[in-house]
Amino acid sequence: QVQLVESGGGLVQGGGSLRLSCAASGIILRINAMGWYRQAPGKQRELVATITQSGSTNYADSVKGRFTISRDNAKNTVWLQMNSLKPEDTAVYYCNGNFWVPSQYGKDVWGEGTLVTVSS
Question: Which of 10, 65, 68, 70 has the fewest C-beta atoms under 10 angstroms from its C-beta?
Fold first, then answer.
């Protein structure tokens, strides 16, 4: 069974930076893609950034130029560097991964989330 463990959330002032990390554990044959999503109070969960096994990235328009997603396939880890944070970035950030595991080619897994709070 694959599990995702996130870390790095917290409270930061507007304009500051945070770095989230997400480590996958379990029997993983290949990481198909990993990414970050967020859910603000009263809003639906939305995509923040994704990165494929080959390194292709995709970002929400609201974070382009401020956030950077990166990964280390050997360590089964993905990071989200968040710079120039704004109060509207306040949300619970969830790590997501799609994995090739022994029983399934595309197993989708979610982390429990980490809270990011940006003060004005």
Answer: 65
Q: Got the DSSP string for 11-55?
A: EEETT--EEEEEEEES--SEEEEEEEEEE-TTS--EEEEEEETT-
* CA gyration radius, the chain: 14
> How far apart are the C-alpha atoms of 37 and 58, rounded to whole Å?
12
Beta strand pairing status for 46-52 and 77-82? unpaired
pLDDT tens digits, 84-98: 999 999 999 999 999
* pLDDT of residue 14 exceeding 90: yes
Q: What are phi and psi of 82, to 5 degrees?
A: -115, 115
pLDDT tens across 42-87, in order?
999 999 999 998 999 999 999 999 999 999 988 999 999 999 999 9
